[in-house]
Fold this protein.
Amino acid sequence: MQLSSLLLAGQGKSLTSLFSLLYLLLFLPACIIGYTVTPKKWKRYFLLLASYGFFWLISGELVIYLILSTFSVHYFGIWIDRISQKMKAQLSELPKEQRKEAKAGFVKKQRAVITLAVVLHIGLLLVLKYSPFFTTNVNLLLSKLGLSVKLTVPSYLMPIGISFFTLQAVSYIVDVYRGVIKADDNIFRLALFMSFFPQIIEGPICRYSETAEQLWNVKPIEYKNLTFGIQRILYGMLKKIVIADRLTLFVNAVFDVKNDYEGGVIAIGAVCYTVQLYMDFSGSMDAVMGTAQIFGITMPENFQRPFFSKTISEFWKRWHISLGAWFRDYIFYPVTSAKKMKKLTSSARKKLGNHYGPLIAGSIALFCVWFCNGLWHGSAWSFIFFGMYHFVLILIGNMLEPPVQAINKKLHIDPKWFVYRLLQILRTGVLVVIGELFFRARGLKAGMDLFTRMVTNFSFSTFDDKLLKSIVVDRYDFIIVGITLLIILTVSILNEKGICIRESLAKKNIVLRWVLLYALLLYIIIFGAYGLGYRPIDPMYAQY
């Protein structure tokens, strides 16, 4: 690729992968060098310029969405803050008996502003992302009713990462309204928070209080941050390039090609897809965290070894943590804390007890969360089903918790017993894989067909070299994936025990450290899908 082509908007689309050669060998090193030579007081502006340049390269003129979103929340935040200041000033001058009524008037204005801000941002996302899905289903309903009316299905251009920076924008404006943070009068600081280039594609979905000040008060690059950041990027490459990309051909064959595979092959495909998705997304997060760490920025972790979870609820507290926390704070809590819900909980608690009473309001909020979660991932019935599937599993888990505890107590089963915990982990893993089967299937009908064949025709008779050869995969691909999974499992177990591998290695002899680092790099080069002419498969979560 000629350097001149990079000066054209939208011509750097391979930058959407943080493991592309263009990113790793050109963009990131250029940012590191440029950041290093830039005077300290201008480093923040260099990061802002690099972030907008990155987004412009991958999205072209669609960068306007990010610009408008940033300007919008900036002025909405100031608007809310000014109403609050005016309220405090006037209330201090009013007699005590008049303050309540006056405060209610100001609160009403603030609610009007926050409602307008949220409706504009979420409404735009709904129109761009979901109006084609809605229109298609309306047309289907009209045809079923025998009506000749047919709506035009719209088609819109959307920038990569719009779901992520929209939720980040909404969290900022709502936190200003709640008084959690003060509205930022510096639009450049807010713009950097919204656009920081490693996270703009796949997150994590950060809060203003977590990263804004870090990004603005940047420091010179330190040796430890540089080496730790590179180590984490390499670890992400191990997950993405050696495992996720290597499994792509097999997973695509099972889910995308119309073949009547038997249940055993479909089950293997579902397991491989679950592994692929985790390694792709968590590997990308490692690249995001590593890149941020190079510049001295600590971002919130998005994964905490989810496959060690004992329940579905725990799994979703460890997987895509920033999204789950967003739904918790901006959907679940507001629903459960509404006046009607509080009354319902109070009434139900008297009749059903302290466990089942709050479950009614909690279940309504949980339904809202998982309906939105399903839709957030995509505009298709399969994604809605995916959300409802997990809603039902978590609801059942909440309802069965007291009787399960009673049975364990009666049978003298210790929940901390290793075998018991292992069985819980395996059960949770199976349920997750089933959910991911529907998530990956090309539509709800296709998912149902795959699941039906998996449970009614469970056999591995055709899973042989002939099948693998037909999809350009061989047993050595699975051997390499298996060995790499054992490496990652070992690291994960140590991390679960509170042992930080990088900190431990930092205390070792420098020769040993560099030998291990080069060994990891060599392993990726030899066994990863990397080389001349290679274009990394686009990060899977960038489409959401």
